[in-house]
Amino acid sequence: MQSDSSTLRLVRAGIDTYQQPVVYMHRDCPVCRSEGFTALSRVAIRSAGKELVATLNVVIDDHLDVDVAALSEMAWHALAPSEGAVAEIRHAEPPASTSALRAKVFGQRLSADAMRALVQDTVDARLSDIELAAFVTACAGDRLDHVETIALTRAMVDAGQRIAWFGEAIVDKHSVGGLPGNRTTPLVVAIAAAAGLCIPKTSSRAITSPAGTADTMEVMAPVDLDLRAMQRVVDREGGCVVWGGSVRLSPADDILIRVERPLDLDSEGQLVASVLSKKIAAGATHVLIDLPVGPTAKVRSNTNAYAIEQRFRATASAFGLHLRIARTDGTQPVGRGIGPSLEARDVLQVLRGDAVAPGDLRDRSLLLAGALLDLAPPPGCASGIVHARALLDSGAAYRKFVAICEAQGGFTEPCISQLVHSVRVQRSGIVRAIDNRRLARVAKLAGAPRARRAGVFLRLRVGDHVTAGDVLFDLHAESRGEMDYARSFVDAHPDIFDIA
Amino acid sequence: MQSDSSTLRLVRAGIDTYQQPVVYMHRDCPVCRSEGFTALSRVAIRSAGKELVATLNVVIDDHLDVDVAALSEMAWHALAPSEGAVAEIRHAEPPASTSALRAKVFGQRLSADAMRALVQDTVDARLSDIELAAFVTACAGDRLDHVETIALTRAMVDAGQRIAWFGEAIVDKHSVGGLPGNRTTPLVVAIAAAAGLCIPKTSSRAITSPAGTADTMEVMAPVDLDLRAMQRVVDREGGCVVWGGSVRLSPADDILIRVERPLDLDSEGQLVASVLSKKIAAGATHVLIDLPVGPTAKVRSNTNAYAIEQRFRATASAFGLHLRIARTDGTQPVGRGIGPSLEARDVLQVLRGDAVAPGDLRDRSLLLAGALLDLAPPPGCASGIVHARALLDSGAAYRKFVAICEAQGGFTEPCISQLVHSVRVQRSGIVRAIDNRRLARVAKLAGAPRARRAGVFLRLRVGDHVTAGDVLFDLHAESRGEMDYARSFVDAHPDIFDIA
């Protein structure tokens, strides 16, 4: 091959296409002309010993020179080219897992090797979004059996880092299908660590919600720790709550979730593989699963819950993982705040035994912490929930939480915005239901999670009696513009609360 | 809502993302900030009464102003904004067909209404690539039954234009899974029109192959006719061969094919709906299907062929369509040329009864034209193939072809490139197989279909005896650079011909 017709200089496009690597090349560049590339061609870009497969977008005006290939952010960071680096660009060979993907689409059972090939190509970004969507669709519902679920879990664990800890019991927890404001994690970590358990917790940031656990935690302490820093915190305090993004555990999971989310697919096998691969990679030995069940939760009925529990147990057992599942109420939000700072305030009120602390968040956290203590009982713990309540009420959990925050880089008291607007009830009655999806939207319009102090503070819960003029919820914002924007939305949607 | 925080000025990005509408907005633009948009958000763009759903790519450097939204080519043409137009940009509501898509993914049978909603959202570009991929995956193999196939066909027909013709019999033909060089269409049209049948044929351009029928035809006559011009040609000559792209027939099909192709999925139901929806929309009453069967063809065995034939018959019957299926040899290329001008030369040689005309292309065309004449016999036609041969041998088909070309805008004799390189056999033996995929790649590297005269001219066929030094094939190119590039590829892949 001639090198001159297949090489271009690499530049940064400055375009964020999320986890999709995209390369921009001019229609008249020598590579497009000689290789016959057109828009959406899958191309292999090789530079300085690294190779990446990207989707081509063709530039047809003179924004781009004909001798360069411009890389999207994901592609730029993956290849990390030096100044002026050139790349050889060719047609991408079909990924090695193509035949496995076709087999699954046509309903065949995948071997462990086939599953490994698919996961490796996923992590190496060799599968296009179309191929990833076909994969998750082919696994939807119950189209993965228990053996395939175990193979998928193992392949996902093996495709990333794995953390090893000293000590016999490493505990972890996961909530399936988060409810708005459901910030039990910092509380469970604080109680479990105060009880002497080792609980190295990684959490996610918000993607479509007004706050992820990592966003809420970040209001109180740094969360962007690398693996070594995380290990230091856990060695010192027995627990942590850090962002999982900088610790590369089960990286295939993040990629599959990106494709699953817009499809809103409930795939039992992928859900279980997703949750357990992260826990196993994080070195957990004892895992508690919080399974909220409710008509608008991820798990909609007890029948669904039973099937998922069986799948969790079979997979956990294959990895020698101790597992407990707690079915919880998934019908309405937990706590009063929605948005990072407001949720953080709820958490601290519970830890401090404040009289105004939200009772439902406290009860849920004690239930989960109690179940975790029963699963991996520390010395002298006869009843998990009794032990958990004692640690919370004595202030031991609060002191442990502050110590963890200090170890992560320093505790900060959350600030509450001064820009508050109260939304009032227009007629008397009983709150029959809350549209959680729209309420989350209001919090996002007000600026959450980017604006840490923005969000919604609920004054009422389902079942409460209200009188016209009562405050339903407070809007919090950091800027007048965002406050107005959220208020306009609330005015246009008076049905967020169903009052009869 | 405030208009200032949700409106941006529309500009053209000059980026071709094929049929995917993409909008580029700056990370710090007021809409991204207030709506909480991130990369890959699905956004609704409304301007001057038109609305489009696009995928967001976020620009993070200063290439783009914060007060504009830049549209990819597809989005720009769909909205066709006037100079300085502004657009209101919001979160896209989930498409109406979301629940139908989920139902199909979970293996349920779709009603006619559900199928219609999915096809309408496909045509309106309301489904993302991920959703389209899930749809085609959920229909893969035999997961659409006959009733669903009929509903899909009807929805696809109704979603586009439909042509009405005068006359009782409107004939058409389609080859499933084109073989390289398989240019029977211009020959079948010429013979059928010469026999007095009405055959308004629309064809496609190459997408991944070195030439589509429309590309080959364009070497000899204009093919980019709108519906009215096409109707004038057919009224005058009884037939045409035009590009289907400017006649909006079954537009959902083009979108689904774009997603199916990279997955290489054989979906019986979608194949049948794809072919027949185009024919029904084109007003056909009698349709001949050419079904090449061979290990590397789209239909690999007679068992597959039988299942597809049943599906074709059931669907055609639901629409009152007269259908005939001809199983043909799908084991090797048809004709000698691969590339627009070289294929056009093959076609003209057959029409002119040239002594060097490729016999296989002549035989295949007579077989298909004969079957079509048997399906819709013109007056005085007792045997289709006898009648077809008489029309070809008498020169009537040739005169009709030239007349059609003249009616389409003027006949042009194809030019053959002067830049030719002969590739020779390295050892004696028998040609056992030809790697059609690689041979097509060689033709594309040489410049086809963009360079009309570029391509491959085969000197040998499977089964031929060869002696070292014989010419296997000629490379044709329009530029020295492309010739060198194709030659390098041939040198690197001596196994394109299997000679033993």
From TrEMBL, chains A, B:
Keywords: Glycosyltransferase, Transferase. The keyword Transferase applies. It comes from the Bacteria. The keyword Ubl conjugation does not apply. It is an enzyme of class 2 (transferase). Its EC number is 2.4.2.4. PROSITE patterns: THYMID_PHOSPHORYLASE. Signal peptide: none annotated. This is Putative thymidine phosphorylase. Pfam families: Glycos_trans_3N, Glycos_transf_3, PYNP_C. It catalyses: thymidine + phosphate = 2-deoxy-alpha-D-ribose 1-phosphate + thymine. It comes from Noviluteimonas lactosilytica. NCBIfam families: ARCH_P_rylase, PRK04350.1. Residues 430-497 form the Pyrimidine nucleoside phosphorylase C-terminal domain. Belongs to the thymidine/pyrimidine-nucleoside phosphorylase family. Type 2 subfamily.
